[in-house]
UniProtKB/TrEMBL annotation:
SMART domains: 4.1m, IG, IGc2. One of its GO terms (cellular component) is cell-cell contact zone. Coiled coil: none annotated. One of its GO terms (biological process) is regulation of wound healing. Monomer and homodimer. One of its GO terms (molecular function) is vascular endothelial growth factor receptor 2 binding. It is found in: Membrane. This is Cell adhesion molecule 4. Belongs to the nectin family.
């Protein structure tokens, strides 16, 4: 019996050892259990608290507000950090010397900071950390957009009448990539687009080609750029003025329609062309200009006219695309002569119009006569056939022979 009691003695001491070591090991065991099963026990101070953030989008150079919403805040430490994990504010106190960041609000419900003059380098995740028994943190992602500047529009080569013009439109910086559109005379043109990524921004280009004529000189072509960084309905535009070169044209205008002896006549040579002709030459048929004539640029002045000044006067101008000339026939009348003023409409055109009107009137009259005769013959035919049917025509015969007229008689 004594030997059996001696063998059971160590087992009797185990409960006393556990009771002796339990108080020092209990906190360690509890902490290990909470670390492995954080949701097994609800704490009154830490687990009920939390933070909430929202993502923010801002245009480059704009103002962004980053907000951390606190739930059941008990005065614990709140820390805000930038994407580089540099502390901006520690429990409401500035920690980073960047004056663009300002603390707008620090209350038990929210912490809000304000970022001015946002840059691409500011983009990323901003950490909002709440230090309690359990550390809570959320990330607010800041996205910085880049609005396009006014597009740069250039022509690849000089436009010439009858040829094609090629224009390019470039926006060097935008994010997201800008959408480019072409407009000409309020109609959209289809261009060929390309884009290239340069770091965080995009370079966008568009090219358009179309045919041009002299009437297109001075026309407006617009390149428009849009992206999400601009307010809704807004865009950046650049207008390009077309420069179309073409051969010149000339026309002479006289200061008066009827010229008499002793009058002063001023002839003006109206010249158009691109490039504009730099020199205008005056001449009179195969003769030289009168000694009294004064030719200055576009005008030719003929004072004290006489019949000796009669003739065909010519103005000529040219550029690298061609030559142009205009004629004016001068006829000087006696002071007492009765003449009609020359009209700008040629007599041949007036005569042609009158002849056409007369022809149309004759055609209408001939048509009316033909219709009238046809209707009358139809009436007589129907009348005779009606008499035959009713039996009222007793006899119908033809009298006559050679050299006599044919006659038709109806006896009733």
């Amino acid at each position: 019996k004594r030997s059996a009691r001696r063998e059971d003695a160590p087992w009797v001491l185990v409960p006393f050892l556990v009771l002796a070591l339990a108080p020092p090991l209990l906190p360690l065991l509890l902490a290990l259990f909470l670390w492995q099963c954080p949701g097994a026990v609800n704490t009154t101070s830490g687990s009920a608290q939390g933070v909430q953030t929202e993502n923010v989008t801002v245009a480059e150079g704009g103002v962004a507000e980053i907000t951390c919403r606190l739930h059941q805040y008990d005065g614990s430490i709140v820390v805000l950090q930038n994407p580089a994990r540099q502390t901006l504010f520690f429990n409401g106190t500035r920690a980073l010397k960047d004056e663009r960041f300002q603390l707008e609000e620090f209350s038990p419900r929210r912490v809000r900071i304000r970022l001015s003059d946002a840059r691409l380098d500011d983009e990323g995740g901003y950490f909002c950390q709440l230090y309690t028994e359990d550390t809570h943190h959320q990330i607010a992602t800041l996205t910085v957009l880049v609005a396009p500047e006014n597009p740069i529009v250039e022509g690849r080569e000089q436009a010439v009448e009858g040829g094609e013009v090629e224009l390019s439109c470039v926006v060097p910086r935008s994010r997201p990539p800008a959408v480019l559109r072409w407009y000409r005379d309020k109609k959209e043109l289809r261009g060929v687009d390309s884009r290239q990524e340069n770091g965080k921004v995009w370079s966008v280009a568009s090219t358009v080609r179309f045919q041009v004529d002299r009437k297109d000189d001075g026309g407006i072509v617009t390149c428009e750029a849009q992206n999400a960084a601009l307010p809704p309905g807004h865009s950046k535009q650049t207008q390009y003025v077309l420069d179309v070169q073409y051969s010149p044209s000339a026309r002479i205008h006289a200061s008066q329609a009827v010229v008499r002896e002793g009058d002063t006549l001023v002839l003006t040579c109206a010249v158009t062309g691109n490039p504009r002709p730099g020199q205008i030459r005056w001449s009179r048929g195969n003769e030289s200009l009168p000694e009294r004539a004064e030719a200055v640029g576009e005008t030719l002045t003929l004072p004290g006219l006489t019949s000796l000044d009669n003739g065909t006067y010519t103005c000529e101008a040219g550029n690298k695309h061609g030559q142009a000339r205009a004629l004016y026939v001068l006829v000087v009348y006696d002071p007492g002569a009765v003449v009609e003023a020359q009209t700008s409409v040629p007599y041949a055109i007036v005569g042609g119009i009158l002849a056409l009107l007369v022809f149309l009137i004759i055609c209408v009259l001939v048509g009316m006569v033909w219709c009238s005769v046809r209707q009358k013959g139809s009436y007589l035919t129907h009348e005779a056939s009606g008499l035959d049917e009713q039996g009222e025509a007793r006899e119908a015969f033809l009298n006559g022979g050679d050299g006599h007229k044919r006659k038709e008689e109806f006896f009733i």
